[in-house]
Amino acid sequence: MLDIAVLMAAVAAAIAAVEFKKLPHAILAFAVMSILVAAAFYVAGARLLAVFQLAIYAGAVSILMLAALHAGEERGE
User: Residue 46: helix, strand or coil by DSSP?
Assistant: First the structure.
């Protein structure tokens, strides 16, 4: 039951990431979705995959998107 609730929350966060108009909010929703997918992997028993999901998507990709967003704002684009 917990895995279904986590996956439903991940789908809701993914829809929110697509629908948000402001990019920082969309990036935050993407990070939340990635964390929830990692939690679903952990509950399913794929512990190593959950660690990689957290490290790569929730960590590196989200930070990279935020860095690109702020670098674009500094140049006035």
Answer: coil
Instruction: Give CA–CA dist 4/22, Å, rounded.
Output: 29
Handedness of CA 21, 27, 31, 34 (dihedral sign): positive
Residue 66, pLDDT above cutoff 90: no
Q: How far is CA 4 from the centre of its chain?
A: 18
- Bigger pLDDT: 74 vs 49: 49
Domain ranges of the chain: 2-74
Helix (H, G, I), strand (E, B) or coil at 75: coil
> What is the SS3 assignment for 22?
coil
Confidence of residue 62 (pLDDT cuts 50, 70, 90): confident
pLDDT of amino acid 18: 93
CATH 3.30.310.50 is held by the domain 2-74: no
